Every structure is written in C-alpha cells, then in structure tokens.
Amino acid sequence: MASKQNHKVLVVDDDPDILELLKYNLKKEGYDVETADDGIKGVHQAKKFNPDLILLDIMMPQQDGVETCRQIREIPEMSDTHITFLTARAEEYSEVAAFEAGADDYITKPIKPRALMSRISALFRKESKQKKKPQIVSGELVIDRSSFTVTSKGEQFNLPKKEFELLYFLAQNPNKVFSRDELLQNIWGTDVYVLARTVDVHIRKVREKIGDGYISTVKGVGYKFENS
Questions:
Q1: In sequence order, what are the beta bridge partners of 226?
Q2: Which of 62, 78, 104, 226 has most Cβ atoms within 10 angstroms of its Cβ?
Q3: Distance CA 136, CA 161 (A)
Q4: What is the model's pLDDT at position 4?
Q5: For 61, which DSSP code?
Q6: Is this prediction's pTM over 0.70?
Q7: Which of 81, 113, 129 marks a domain boundary?
Q8: What is the pLDDT of residues 49-75, one digit of tens each?
Q9: What's the confidence (pLDDT) of residue 2?
Q10: How many structural domains is the chain composed of?
Q11: What is the pLDDT of residue 228?
Q12: Are residues 13 and 124 in the same domain?
C-alpha cells in the first residue's frame, strides 16, 4: 500500500446522503471507492472489491452491520481488512457487539468528513510503516507477521487484524504484564476512543482460537504472554 491510489475503501450504509458524502470525500483524497446500501450487498461487494478498509453502518435493512461484519470476517481474504463502524448507535452493548464481530474501530455519527479523512490517512500511514518481522515461535504456536497467520498444533488461523496485532504485541514482549490502557494505546492508538472492555473481548476471542495456555490474566493488572 504505497499511496492513496492503491487503497480501496468500501462504504456500506443505507443512507444515500452519507454514501454520497463519504464517496465524494474519499475520492477527493485519491482512494478507490465502492459503496453498498445494505449488509447483504456489502458482503457481496467486499468479496468482489477486496477493500483495504470497510466503513460500515450498524442499522441497515436486509442485514445489520454486526452480522455483515461477522460474515466478512469469515472470508479468508478479509482477515487483515480494517473494518470501522460509523454509526449513530452509541450504546455500550452495540460497541461491544461490533468488536465481538471483528471490528477494528467504532466511530459514532454525526460524521465529520475532514476528521475522518485524517484518521483514515493516519491508519494507512501507520500500516505502511510497519515492517514485516520474523516469525515468533512459542511451543506449538507460530505467529507469522508476513502472512498474518497463526498456527497452533498444526491448525492455521487467520485472525482479524486487531486480534493478530494484540497477540503479536504480547508475544513480542513475553512475560511482561500490560494493562488494558497500555494495550489500547499500543494496538488501537491514542487517537481512537474504545472501551477498555474491548481488550477483554479481543483476548477472549484469541484464546478461543489458540487455546488458554499462552495469554494469562494478572488479576487487577492486565495480561501477559507466557513464553513456552
């Protein structure tokens, strides 16, 4: 992803005014943009378009954004696609449901186009600076940064981007305890507001895939990776 012209963004929202607003501003910034006005179309378009970023509403006809996100995360090619919810739903349970489904970010409406474009640009800049690093091997667990895959006991997993980044960060710093706030800052960044509970959700989902023996909870403090 060397320039904006290489970045593809899919916008999924049932509000035609929002679709038009975001498409105009994204194209103005040089992104390749496609849109869909409901969740079912969004999944279909994601398969065809293979975007780098999906901006996704929650409340939509035919299929809501949470189920749409869940289905997109089941597509192997979408494992490292960034999914950001743009929604008027500000309740905590909606945010938790979004992260449970595999979202990377959650932004409440009304949308401020300039701020959103700046945030998207910062996201892609951060990703372009990340260097591919060697595998991390711990017992039967292999974490491969180059392919964004995790193998445990011979079974390969394609983790959503934030789950992978969280696991990789902890594994890079074995036996060191990190608080939820520290993990939020290192994985989500200081310019993204998400609940501390988001870390718990992602840790639980990683454990469900690789097993309970790698990431331990230090009560009242945070989490650490147990090096085998």
A1: none
A2: 104
A3: 17
A4: 55
A5: S
A6: no
A7: 129
A8: 999 999 999 999 889 999 999 999 988
A9: 37
A10: 2
A11: 64
A12: yes
